[in-house]
Amino acid sequence: MATLTGDQQIPDWPSLDIRFIKPPVAVVFICLTTLYGGVHCLAWDAQFRSTAQTAALWRTASLILTLSGPTLLFL
Questions:
Q1: What is the end-to-end Cα distance of the chain in Å, rounded?
Q2: How far is residue 38's CA from residue 25's CA, in Å, rounded to a whole number?
Q3: Per residue in 4-46, pLDDT tens?
Q4: What does pTM read for this prediction?
Q5: What is the domain partition of the chain in residue ranges?
């Protein structure tokens, strides 16, 4: 059984540190989130049966989906 000495620490699991994501995984994630959000943006001018708030929520959610992947580039 291993023992810790000095300033050794047991790392948190799972590690949420974005700097340790491998570049190919990050590129795939960015592409997929942008594509998925882009599909939702296709309904930007769609007619909604309910209020105008529904259209505003749809547009806001579509933008968040589309921009969530590329936002990783700035973290």
A1: 37
A2: 20
A3: 666 666 666 665 565 666 678 878 888 999 999 999 899 888 8
A4: 0.61
A5: 21-74
